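Repro:
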Amino acid sequence: MERLKVAVIGLGKMGVLHTGILSAMSNVHVVAVCDKKKLIVRFVKKILDGKVQVVDDVNHLSAFNLDAVYVTTPIPSHFKLIKSVYANNIASNVFVEKTLASSYAEAEELCRLSEKFGGVNMVGFQKRHSVTFRKAHELLIQGAIGEPSLFEAYAYSSDFIGFKSEEIRKVSISRGGVLRDLGAHAIDLSLWFFGDLEVVPRNVNFDEGERFEEGVSFTVRGTNGLKGLIKTSWYKEGYRMPEIGLRIEGSRGSLFVNDDEVEVKFTDGAAKKWYRHDLNDNVDFLLGAPEYYREDSYFIKRIMEGKSTTPDFLTASKVDKIIDRVCQEIC
């Protein structure tokens, strides 16, 4: 069986997760990992014991004749690293954790580079590979609730309850801000479900007591009079684990979905609910959550087939475009 030679750049939580999943796939050979932090490099070298090459400079990866590279570093570093991957011919097939870049201008340039160098590219919006969100998307496309007219998408966590604002700002910079770190999931799902969306001017708000670094909500509009509200916060009580969800109102009923369940309520009073375990939420190797394995398996399969992915760089750049527009409204 053909095995793709893959390297992972960045050995934080997501880098370790993807490395573990890829290492369990029979059609993948993780030949190298890269991190600029010397302490991490020394530790990983000891753990891997020569089974995988460990380097501290992305340019050293050009020696491995790679088929694909995963970029799993903090968002502010994505632009520079992906440019280096392309410029040094390290690999033409590139996976990057969300969001694609730190701005729409950067995202546009990476789209141009990906088109120039070819290959398959993908951005890690793993909620598209969740069985509940897939089921909800299927129901919407099938017209189960009729024509959608109104939706609310949210992305909440309690990560920073009890933290001082200065502490939140420091973390916010490294993680790209609440919109890119957490809210991007709600934005991407909204784009997947409803197509292109436009931020409504003068409709960006903050929850009481919150700053932009902590939480924000904004209104969008789509085709056929569709209106939506997208909300995100690192500062919500009761969300020990991050939660992403969608509520949709249609002409024939309503739909609610999060990571754990999908529920449809029809205007005639009928209703139906599916839980995650009802939807064959099984994978060959479980690490983190099932959607991460599906995401990686999908990317590898598309490389081997020579086919494009979704969300690719171009699709994912629309998330950066919306975030930039929201930031412009605030400024």
